Amino acid sequence: MRNLSSGSKGNSTLVWTDDNAILLDAGISALQVRRRVADSGIEIEDVDAILISHEHIDHIRGIDVLSRRYGKKVYATSRTWENMKIVPDERGILRREMRFGDIVIRTFPVPHDAVDPVGFEIYHEDSKVVAVTDIGHAPPYLLETMKDASLVLIESNHDVDMLQNGPYPYYLKQRILSEEGHLSNEDCGKALASSLNRDAVAVMLAHLSEENNTPELARRTAEENVDVPVIVTGLEPTDIIEL
Ligand SMILES: [Zn+2]
Ligand SMILES: [Zn+2]
After folding, report:
1. Which-ligand-closest: CA of 113?
2. Collapsing DSSP states into helix, strand and coil, what is residue 229?
3. How much distance in Å is there from the Cα of 51 to the middle of ligand 2?
4. Which of 7, 147, 228, 233 could form a disulfide with 3 if both were Cys (CB 3.0 to 4.6 A apart)?
Protein backbone atom coordinates (compact mmCIF):
# COMPACT_ATOMS: atom_id res chain seq x y z
CA MET A 1 0.00 0.00 0.00
CA ARG A 2 1.10 3.51 -0.72
CA ASN A 3 -0.50 6.90 -0.27
CA LEU A 4 0.05 8.79 -3.54
CA SER A 5 -1.14 12.18 -2.33
CA SER A 6 -2.98 13.56 0.66
CA GLY A 7 -4.53 16.85 1.77
CA SER A 8 -6.93 19.43 0.42
CA LYS A 9 -5.00 19.56 -2.91
CA GLY A 10 -5.86 15.94 -3.66
CA ASN A 11 -6.13 12.47 -2.15
CA SER A 12 -5.35 9.05 -3.56
CA THR A 13 -4.13 5.78 -2.10
CA LEU A 14 -2.98 2.72 -4.01
CA VAL A 15 -3.56 -0.75 -2.55
CA TRP A 16 -2.22 -3.75 -4.41
CA THR A 17 -1.34 -7.42 -4.25
CA ASP A 18 0.57 -9.58 -6.74
CA ASP A 19 -2.57 -9.91 -8.84
CA ASN A 20 -4.90 -6.99 -8.14
CA ALA A 21 -4.81 -3.26 -7.50
CA ILE A 22 -7.31 -0.61 -6.50
CA LEU A 23 -7.24 3.12 -5.94
CA LEU A 24 -9.03 4.69 -3.02
CA ASP A 25 -10.05 8.14 -4.33
CA ALA A 26 -8.37 9.90 -7.25
CA GLY A 27 -8.24 13.55 -6.25
CA ILE A 28 -5.08 14.42 -8.18
CA SER A 29 -4.86 14.69 -11.97
CA ALA A 30 -5.05 11.52 -14.04
CA LEU A 31 -1.51 12.19 -15.27
CA GLN A 32 -0.20 12.36 -11.71
CA VAL A 33 -2.11 9.23 -10.75
CA ARG A 34 -0.65 7.34 -13.71
CA ARG A 35 2.91 8.51 -12.96
CA ARG A 36 2.68 7.70 -9.28
CA VAL A 37 1.12 4.30 -9.90
CA ALA A 38 3.90 3.50 -12.41
CA ASP A 39 6.50 4.71 -9.94
CA SER A 40 5.08 2.18 -7.46
CA GLY A 41 5.92 -0.64 -9.87
CA ILE A 42 2.54 -1.31 -11.49
CA GLU A 43 0.87 0.04 -14.59
CA ILE A 44 -2.35 2.03 -14.65
CA GLU A 45 -3.76 -0.71 -16.94
CA ASP A 46 -3.46 -3.13 -14.01
CA VAL A 47 -5.61 -1.06 -11.66
CA ASP A 48 -8.93 -2.92 -11.31
CA ALA A 49 -11.11 -0.12 -9.94
CA ILE A 50 -11.27 3.32 -8.38
CA LEU A 51 -13.35 3.60 -5.21
CA ILE A 52 -14.64 7.00 -4.14
CA SER A 53 -15.15 7.93 -0.48
CA HIS A 54 -17.28 11.06 -1.16
CA GLU A 55 -17.94 13.69 -3.80
CA HIS A 56 -15.61 16.51 -2.68
CA ILE A 57 -13.27 17.62 -5.47
CA ASP A 58 -10.06 16.73 -3.61
CA HIS A 59 -11.18 13.07 -3.87
CA ILE A 60 -12.44 12.91 -7.46
CA ARG A 61 -10.42 15.33 -9.61
CA GLY A 62 -8.81 12.66 -11.80
CA ILE A 63 -11.71 10.24 -12.30
CA ASP A 64 -13.08 11.61 -15.57
CA VAL A 65 -9.82 11.26 -17.49
CA LEU A 66 -8.89 7.99 -15.77
CA SER A 67 -12.22 6.58 -16.90
CA ARG A 68 -12.18 7.99 -20.44
CA ARG A 69 -8.52 7.49 -21.31
CA TYR A 70 -7.76 4.28 -19.46
CA GLY A 71 -11.22 2.72 -19.17
CA LYS A 72 -11.06 2.63 -15.39
CA LYS A 73 -14.35 1.88 -13.67
CA VAL A 74 -15.19 4.27 -10.85
CA TYR A 75 -17.33 3.12 -7.92
CA ALA A 76 -19.30 5.42 -5.63
CA THR A 77 -22.52 4.99 -3.65
CA SER A 78 -25.72 5.86 -5.53
CA ARG A 79 -26.36 8.93 -3.40
CA THR A 80 -22.81 10.10 -4.03
CA TRP A 81 -23.30 9.70 -7.81
CA GLU A 82 -26.47 11.80 -7.61
CA ASN A 83 -24.43 14.65 -6.14
CA MET A 84 -21.26 14.24 -8.18
CA LYS A 85 -20.20 17.13 -10.41
CA ILE A 86 -17.93 14.88 -12.47
CA VAL A 87 -19.61 12.01 -14.29
CA PRO A 88 -17.12 9.52 -15.74
CA ASP A 89 -17.98 7.10 -18.56
CA GLU A 90 -17.42 3.92 -16.57
CA ARG A 91 -19.50 3.98 -13.40
CA GLY A 92 -20.34 1.36 -10.81
CA ILE A 93 -22.22 1.34 -7.53
CA LEU A 94 -20.04 1.09 -4.45
CA ARG A 95 -21.61 -1.53 -2.20
CA ARG A 96 -21.05 -2.43 1.44
CA GLU A 97 -18.90 -5.35 0.40
CA MET A 98 -17.08 -5.90 -2.89
CA ARG A 99 -14.37 -8.20 -4.18
CA PHE A 100 -11.71 -7.32 -6.73
CA GLY A 101 -9.80 -10.56 -7.29
CA ASP A 102 -7.99 -11.29 -4.03
CA ILE A 103 -8.85 -7.94 -2.44
CA VAL A 104 -12.09 -7.62 -0.46
CA ILE A 105 -13.39 -4.17 0.36
CA ARG A 106 -15.99 -3.21 2.91
CA THR A 107 -17.30 0.29 3.40
CA PHE A 108 -18.85 1.96 6.42
CA PRO A 109 -20.50 5.36 6.91
CA VAL A 110 -18.44 8.19 8.38
CA PRO A 111 -19.44 11.62 9.73
CA HIS A 112 -18.54 14.35 7.21
CA ASP A 113 -20.42 17.12 5.41
CA ALA A 114 -20.91 15.17 2.18
CA VAL A 115 -24.07 13.28 1.13
CA ASP A 116 -22.98 9.69 1.81
CA PRO A 117 -19.31 9.56 2.86
CA VAL A 118 -17.67 6.21 3.58
CA GLY A 119 -14.52 4.77 5.11
CA PHE A 120 -12.83 1.61 3.81
CA GLU A 121 -11.81 -1.74 5.26
CA ILE A 122 -9.52 -3.65 2.89
CA TYR A 123 -8.83 -7.35 3.37
CA HIS A 124 -6.22 -9.57 1.74
CA GLU A 125 -5.22 -12.92 3.26
CA ASP A 126 -4.45 -12.15 6.93
CA SER A 127 -4.05 -8.41 6.46
CA LYS A 128 -6.60 -5.73 7.12
CA VAL A 129 -6.24 -2.06 6.32
CA VAL A 130 -8.58 0.65 7.57
CA ALA A 131 -8.49 3.88 5.55
CA VAL A 132 -10.54 6.89 6.57
CA THR A 133 -10.18 10.62 6.02
CA ASP A 134 -12.62 13.52 6.13
CA ILE A 135 -14.31 12.70 9.42
CA GLY A 136 -15.61 15.21 11.94
CA HIS A 137 -15.18 12.73 14.78
CA ALA A 138 -14.25 9.08 15.26
CA PRO A 139 -17.55 7.13 15.39
CA PRO A 140 -17.86 3.94 17.49
CA TYR A 141 -17.66 1.63 14.47
CA LEU A 142 -14.33 3.12 13.41
CA LEU A 143 -12.88 2.62 16.89
CA GLU A 144 -14.06 -0.98 16.80
CA THR A 145 -12.74 -1.85 13.36
CA MET A 146 -9.30 -0.33 13.97
CA LYS A 147 -8.68 -2.85 16.76
CA ASP A 148 -7.58 -5.69 14.49
CA ALA A 149 -6.16 -3.64 11.61
CA SER A 150 -2.61 -4.26 10.43
CA LEU A 151 -2.41 -0.73 9.08
CA VAL A 152 -4.56 2.34 9.64
CA LEU A 153 -4.66 5.41 7.44
CA ILE A 154 -6.53 8.09 9.39
CA GLU A 155 -7.08 11.81 9.14
CA SER A 156 -5.00 14.12 11.34
CA ASN A 157 -6.25 17.37 9.88
CA HIS A 158 -5.49 20.22 12.22
CA ASP A 159 -4.13 21.47 15.48
CA VAL A 160 -7.10 23.04 17.27
CA ASP A 161 -5.09 26.04 18.57
CA MET A 162 -3.56 26.76 15.16
CA LEU A 163 -7.00 26.60 13.57
CA GLN A 164 -8.64 28.82 16.17
CA ASN A 165 -5.86 31.41 16.04
CA GLY A 166 -5.33 31.12 12.28
CA PRO A 167 -6.56 33.13 9.29
CA TYR A 168 -9.67 31.12 8.35
CA PRO A 169 -13.02 32.94 8.53
CA TYR A 170 -15.28 32.07 11.45
CA TYR A 171 -17.74 29.96 9.43
CA LEU A 172 -14.94 27.82 8.00
CA LYS A 173 -13.39 27.28 11.43
CA GLN A 174 -16.80 26.18 12.72
CA ARG A 175 -17.26 23.84 9.77
CA ILE A 176 -13.88 22.17 10.27
CA LEU A 177 -14.36 21.87 14.05
CA SER A 178 -17.88 20.47 13.76
CA GLU A 179 -18.84 16.84 14.27
CA GLU A 180 -19.10 16.53 10.48
CA GLY A 181 -15.94 18.43 9.57
CA HIS A 182 -12.36 17.21 9.93
CA LEU A 183 -10.50 15.27 12.62
CA SER A 184 -7.99 17.17 14.77
CA ASN A 185 -4.55 15.83 15.76
CA GLU A 186 -5.81 15.51 19.32
CA ASP A 187 -8.92 13.52 18.40
CA CYS A 188 -6.91 11.36 16.01
CA GLY A 189 -4.45 10.61 18.82
CA LYS A 190 -7.27 9.70 21.22
CA ALA A 191 -8.90 7.41 18.66
CA LEU A 192 -5.59 5.64 18.00
CA ALA A 193 -4.83 5.30 21.71
CA SER A 194 -8.17 3.68 22.41
CA SER A 195 -8.16 1.30 19.45
CA LEU A 196 -4.93 0.64 17.63
CA ASN A 197 -3.49 -2.83 18.00
CA ARG A 198 0.08 -2.94 19.37
CA ASP A 199 1.01 -5.32 16.56
CA ALA A 200 -0.09 -2.90 13.85
CA VAL A 201 2.61 -2.40 11.23
CA ALA A 202 2.16 1.36 11.08
CA VAL A 203 -0.26 4.25 11.20
CA MET A 204 -0.47 6.76 8.35
CA LEU A 205 -1.64 10.27 9.18
CA ALA A 206 -3.58 11.80 6.33
CA HIS A 207 -5.33 14.93 5.05
CA LEU A 208 -3.14 17.35 7.02
CA SER A 209 -4.14 20.99 6.67
CA GLU A 210 -1.41 23.17 5.17
CA GLU A 211 -2.68 26.21 7.10
CA ASN A 212 -3.60 24.74 10.45
CA ASN A 213 -1.12 21.94 11.04
CA THR A 214 2.48 20.90 10.59
CA PRO A 215 3.78 17.38 9.88
CA GLU A 216 5.85 17.61 13.08
CA LEU A 217 2.86 18.49 15.27
CA ALA A 218 0.70 15.75 13.78
CA ARG A 219 3.49 13.19 14.18
CA ARG A 220 4.26 14.21 17.75
CA THR A 221 0.61 14.01 18.80
CA ALA A 222 0.26 10.53 17.30
CA GLU A 223 3.52 9.32 18.79
CA GLU A 224 2.41 10.47 22.23
CA ASN A 225 -0.57 8.16 21.87
CA VAL A 226 0.66 5.00 20.16
CA ASP A 227 3.80 2.94 20.04
CA VAL A 228 3.86 1.96 16.36
CA PRO A 229 5.71 3.61 13.45
CA VAL A 230 3.99 6.81 12.31
CA ILE A 231 4.05 7.82 8.64
CA VAL A 232 2.93 11.33 7.75
CA THR A 233 1.38 11.67 4.29
CA GLY A 234 1.50 14.83 2.17
CA LEU A 235 1.71 16.13 -1.38
CA GLU A 236 4.32 13.56 -2.39
CA PRO A 237 3.88 9.76 -2.28
CA THR A 238 4.86 7.93 0.89
CA ASP A 239 7.17 4.93 1.01
CA ILE A 240 5.57 1.65 0.00
CA ILE A 241 4.24 -0.18 3.05
CA GLU A 242 4.25 -3.97 2.77
CA LEU A 243 1.89 -6.02 4.88
ZN1 LIG B 1 -14.40 16.10 2.19
ZN1 LIG C 1 -10.99 15.84 1.57
Report:
1. 1
2. coil
3. 14
4. 233
Of 102, 137, 98, give the one whose Cα is nearest residue 121: 98
Q: Which of 60, 57, 58, 34 is nearest to 47 (CA)?
A: 34
Q: How far is the CA of 119 from the centre of ligand 1 (A)?
A: 12
What is the number of the ligand closest to the CA of 8?
2
Domains, in order of start, for the chain: 1-95 (3.60.15.10), 126-233 (3.60.15.10)
203 within 8 A of 152, measured Cβ to Cβ = yes
Q: Which pTM does this prediction carry?
A: 0.97
pLDDT tens, per residue, the chain with 243 residues: 999 999 999 999 999 999 999 999 999 999 999 999 999 999 999 999 999 999 999 999 999 999 999 999 999 999 999 999 999 999 999 999 999 999 999 999 999 999 999 999 999 999 999 999 999 999 999 999 999 999 999 999 999 999 999 999 999 999 999 999 999 999 999 999 999 998 999 999 999 999 999 999 999 999 999 999 999 999 999 999 999
